[in-house]
Each structure stands twice: as C-alpha cells, then as structure tokens.
Amino acid sequence: MPVIARRVGAAVSDGAKARIAGLKTYPTLDTWRNPLTRGVARHFAHEAWIKTHKDLDFDYRLTETEIAGLSCMRYETAGERPDAPLIFYIHGGDFVSGSARTHASVALPLCHLTAAPGLGLNYTLLPEAHFPTQIEEIDRVYRAQLASAPDRKIVLMADGTGATLALAAMMRWRDEGVPAPGGAICLSPCVDGTGASDSHIALDGHDPLIRSGGGRLFRQLFRYYAPGRDLSDPAVSPLYGEFEWLPPMAIHAGGREVLLGDAARLAEAARRAGVDARLRVFDGMFHLFHMHWSMDEARAAHNDLADFINSL
Prior knowledge:
Blueprint lengths: L13 H9 L6 H5 L1 H17 L8 E8 L2 E8 L8 E5 L13 H11 L3 E4 L11 H16 L5 E6 L1 H16 L6 E5 L11 H4 L13 H10 L23 E6 L5 H13 L4 E6 L13 H16 L1
Parallel strand pairs: 3-4, 3-5, 5-6, 6-7, 7-8
Antiparallel strand pairs: 1-2, 2-4
C-alpha cells in the first residue's frame, strides 16, 4: 500500500494543513463486506463525519421526515426564502455508509448561503439492498417533490458515489419524460465503476482518505454494488451514458484526490453533449473537503456553488 503523502504546498491554508494531517483513511471493502466488522466501521466513519458539524458557525435545524415512504432529513437555516430552490442532497459513502444526517455538513452551508431549504434522502445502504434499489428510492422522493410543489425549482446535489446514483436517476428521468432538475451539483464525483481514470494511478496515495489500488478497489466496490452487471453499463457507471438534456452542472474536485479524473471526464462528457458544465479544481484539497466548513478552501467552494445556484 502506498504511503500517505502528508506534505502539502505552501498555498494551502493552515486550517487545511492541520485537517489533512489528522484525517484517517476510509476502511477497505473487505471491512464493509464482513458483517462482524461492518457495524464498527460504520460507527467510526459516522462519528468522524458528524464531528464536522462542529465547524458550522451558523444556526441550522435537522428534522427527520418521511417522503414516499422513505426516511429523509430536512435541512433548515435562518432566513429561508420562499422562492429559493430546493436542494435535494444525495450523500456519498461508497454505497455502504453515511446518511443524510452524517453528511449534513456538506449541504447545510449551501442552504445557509442561498437561503434555500434542503432535503436529504436516507437511501438503503449495501448490503441491505443492491442496484438499482437506491436509484429507485431517489426517483420516488424526486417525483413526490415534483407533485407537491410543481413550481419550485430543484437542484440535485451529490457527492462521491452519491453522484453515480444522482446521475443515473437523472438519465432515467430523461428516458421516462420526467422534468429535469433546475441544476445539478457533483462534489468529488465517483462515476466510473471501471476505475479507468488516470488519477487512480497518478494520485493514489496522495489523498489521505481514499485508496484506489490503481482503480482495482473501485471495480471491486461497483461489483459489490451491482453484482453481475457490466461495469460500463451507464445505469451503473453514468460516465458512459448520454448527457443530452441534463441541466447545468457544477462539478468540484480536490487537486490531490484519486477521483479528480472522474470529475474532469464527467465535465468533458457533459460539455460535449451541450450541457453547461462548470469544473472547479481546488489546489491541495482532498476528497469531499466541502464537509470541513472551517477551512478557507471549503468556504470558497461553497461560495462558488452558491453563485452557481443563484445563476440558474
């Protein structure tokens, strides 16, 4: 296993340097697959993510709710505008961990900056359910929101493997004639289950959170997510899908994460299809640095996303 590169450039903020030094690598897939270790791994991963809530320096409220028979979380901040879009958030976590609550620090800053309400879905994790259950659950909640507030714009926001689920859902809506979201946000997107991006090789060992094994570990993960399916099937790896009809997209990645290549390829595929796709790469940043609101780089990223939403 490559040694974690903890050295960072001088341009990286002091807060980010300290955060990078203290981060621990995510568990391996073998840990997630083993029923004896999965619960413990989820506990410690969730605990680490919830700690990032302490970075939030504004008032907010998390409220559990049920939509279309599914568990969801409402995100509320002060000064919400009735005409603001709804931010519909799909969390990451390698399909096996995370929740709308644990990842709240990803969505709440954007709600705060745009005065928009947020909604997160607790889709069914692996191995309790496999592909395409998670996509179908996103579909049910999205359609319920369209039915309850047809005039309200929806911005679909996702990170990591959540971006795979969100993009696959949008491609399904296109094929089935369902109205598209007003915009889409993909943070540190993991959208190619074949692990073909060069960054899986060039940057493996430089992100303190994720190991790739040259793409091998991602192929294993996606085989676990969609057993027996072709990993290049667009329903499984949406990077290989058709991007026509998709809404304007904001795509963010860190300069040292193995998923940088997925982000770059996603932006290029969307651009070639005529989609207004905006890629931002943040120097020295790691996977889903947006979760760490106290860092200058995270604040800059969320302000960029707020500009994107306000431009829709």
